[in-house]
Write a structure and sequence with these properties.
Elements: H1 14-24, E1 29-33, E2 36-40, E3 52-60, E4 76-86, E5 89-98, E6 111-120, E7 123-130, E8 135-144, E9 147-156, E10 159-170
Antiparallel strand pairs: 1-2, 3-4, 3-10, 4-5, 5-6, 6-7, 7-8, 8-9, 9-10
């Protein structure tokens, strides 16, 4: 039996058409049903380009949270992100420096790296690993006109170690 692109009735086979399209255009995700081709579009590109150096601050909030004394209420650290964006993916480095309070763990948590980061439109999510104490922080934010603002939550030992707000501006 010979296999061709047409059915017994002389019509082009939907399955064969989908196979040919898939071979000719491997990046095109196509599903063929009853002679109709449904094309799944790629996700839209991010609305922002975030590659560069970003500096600003993180602010420990809310005050009075269990595990934080009043002495760390509104503790502020100077933070820097060096971001490399490739399409919707982010990678890079993170640093923390003294603002009006030392970085977590008596200043040991001064640097980390982005293990996963994603940009969708103007919104971004980054997971930062801190090797000094094997903790991680999730940074959520929105980028607008050369700045990023958002919230962060740091996890350690199966629980929340810190949370707050962050804001950075593009340095270059």
């Amino acid at each position: 039996m010979e296999v061709g692109l047409t059915s017994e009735r002389g019509r082009t086979s939907p399955t064969a058409l989908g196979l040919v399209l898939g071979l000719l255009f491997p990046g095109l995700a196509a599903a063929v049903f009853d002679g109709c081709v449904a094309v799944k579009a790629s996700p839209p590109k991010p609305a922002v380009e975030l590659s560069g150096v970003w500096r600003g601050e993180s602010l420990l909030t809310p005050c009075g949270w269990i595990g934080h004394s009043e002495s760390v209420c509104n503790a502020m650290n100077l933070i820097t992100f060096t971001l490399i964006q490739s399409d919707a993916q982010l990678r890079g480095r993170y640093t923390c420096a003294y603002g009006n309070y030392i970085c977590r763990h008596d200043g040991l948590d001064r640097s980390g790296y982005i293990t996963s980061g994603h940009v969708s439109g103007r919104r971004l999510t980054m997971r930062v690993m801190i090797p000094a104490d094997v903790s991680s922080c999730m940074f959520y934010g929105t980028a607008t006109q050369g700045q990023i603002v958002g919230r962060y939550i740091c996890y350690e030992g199966g629980g929340i170690a810190e949370e707050g707000d962050w804001r950075v501006v593009r340095v270059y």
